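call fold(seq) -> C-alpha cells
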Amino acid sequence: MEILWLIVAGLVVGALGRFVKPGSDPMGWLVTIGIGIGAVLIVGLLAGGDDGLGFWGYVLAVIVAAVLVALVGRMWPDRGGRAAA
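ret:
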C-alpha cells in the first residue's frame, strides 16, 4: 500500500513540479512520475520520514521536483537527438 501511495504522491508532485517550471519538456510521464517519487523520497529522507511530510513537506517536494525537472530536462535529448542547450 505504501508503494502505491508513493507512486500517486510522485505523480502529483512530479506533475506540479513540471507545471511550476515554465516551458515545455521533452520528457514523458513515466520520467515525470520518477522525478516526483525522487523528490518525495529526498524530502522524506531530509525530514526524517516517519511522520509523513505534512503540508510544507509537500510544498518543498514540489520545489525539489521543479528543480529536478529543470535539471533532467536540460540533459534530456530533444527530438533531433541532441542534448538541450
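The chain is about 70% helix and 0% strand.
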